Amino acid sequence: MNPLNIEISRRKALGLGVMSATALGLASCAGGGTSASGGGQEGSGKLQFWSNHPGSSKDLEQEMIDAFMQENPDIPVELVSAGSNYEELAQKFNAALAGGDLPDVIVASDVTWFNFAFNEATAPLDDLWKQAGTDPDSYVDTLREDYALDGKHYGVPYSRSTCLMYFNTDILDKAGLPTDRGPATWQEFAEWAPKLVEAGGGKPALVVPDGSNYLDWYFQGMIWTFGGAYSKEWEPTFTDPKSIEAGEFLKDMVGKKYIEIATDPTVQFGSGNAAGLLESTGSLGGLKKTATIPFITTYLPGPKPGCPTGGAGLAVANGISDERKEKAVKFIDFMTNTENTVKFSQATGYMPVRKDAIDHPDEQKYLSENQNAKTAIEQLTENTAPQDYARVFVPGGGQRIGGALDRITVGQEDVTAVFEDLQKDTQKTIDQQITPLL
Prior knowledge:
single chain; 19 helices; two-stranded antiparallel ribbon
C-alpha cells in the first residue's frame, strides 16, 4: 500500500473524527481551553507526569526523571501511577479535566490521544517545540506523524510497539519445526499447532490475551491476512465473508485448544506453559528477565501486512499555563531523547523513537547481541499497516470488538451471529455520532 495514500486517508479520518468526538459529549470537553488557572498543580511548581508505566517501566521512568531533575533543578517532576493500562489512565485524565486537578504530561495511547486532541484537552506542540528548542524532525517520521491533526502535533512517540510472536525454541525443536522463524501464514500455524501441542506435553500452541486486554488489537492482523478487515474507512466490514472466515478460524483454534485465551499469557509462556505467545513488543523486556525457557521473536503470520502498529505517546494537558507547557515539552524532549529512547527500548522491548537511535553505539551493540529485539524494528517497515477506523476512530471500537471476540473464543458462540451484532452496533454508532456530521 502506498504510504502517501495511507497518510492522506488517515488525515481524512482525523478531520472527520474532530466532529464525531465532539458529538460524544465526553467529560474531556469540560477541560478544554488554555487558561492558566486550569491546572490543579499550578501552585506547587512541580510538574506531574501521569503514566501507566508501559512495559513495567516505573523504576526506569523514575530513573530518567531523576536524571532530568539533575540537569534541570528548577523543574521538579513527580511521577504518578495513573492506572494499570492506557484506558484507566484516560479515564482518570477525563475525571481531572472535569475536576480541575490536571497533570502536566500524560501517556496517551493509539486509541485515546485523538479524543483528547479533538476536544482541545491536550495542547498542540509545534509552537512549544520551537520555544523549547526541540527538533521534531529527529523523531522517526511515521511515529511522529501518528499524532498529527490538521497540520499540528498533539503528542510525541514514547512506548511505540507492534505485535510479536514469541516461540519456545525447545518445543519447536522437539516438534521438528524450524527454530529460526515463525509460521509464514495462519494456515501454516494450523499445521504446526498439533505438533506444538504434542511436543509441549498438551500445553497450548499459542496463548493470547482476552478481549479486555487488547485481543481486538492482536486479531486485527489475523483478519487482514484472511482478506477481511474491521472496516473500510467508515464502512464496517465484520460481516464480509473473509472477516467471518478469520473469526471462524480463531474460534476453531481455540475450540481445538491450539490457541488459549489467557488472563496472563506472558507469564504463562515465560514459565514454559505454552509453546507460543502473541503479545506486544513491550513484553520483550520482561520476558528477557523472567522467562525460564529459551525463545525467539518472529513476525506475525502473513500475507503482509499481518500486524498493526500500536503503543502510546506523551501529550501535554491544555488547561495549564503556557509556562508549564513549555517546561512540560522540555521534559518530554528529555524523556524521549536518543539516550533515553535507547535505554527505554532495551529495557521494555518498545521501539526506539528517534532516528539516530538505531546508529547509537549502545543500540548497535545491543541489537547485534539481541536478535529478538531487532525483530520489531524490522517488522515495522515490512509487515505493518495503520489500524482500521472501526477500532481507533469509532467511539468505543476496541472495547466493542474485544467483547465480540470474547464471545466467539471463550463463549464459542456462532461467529456469523456475533459479527452481525458487531456490525449493527458499529454501524449504529457511526450513524448516530459520525454520519450526521459528515
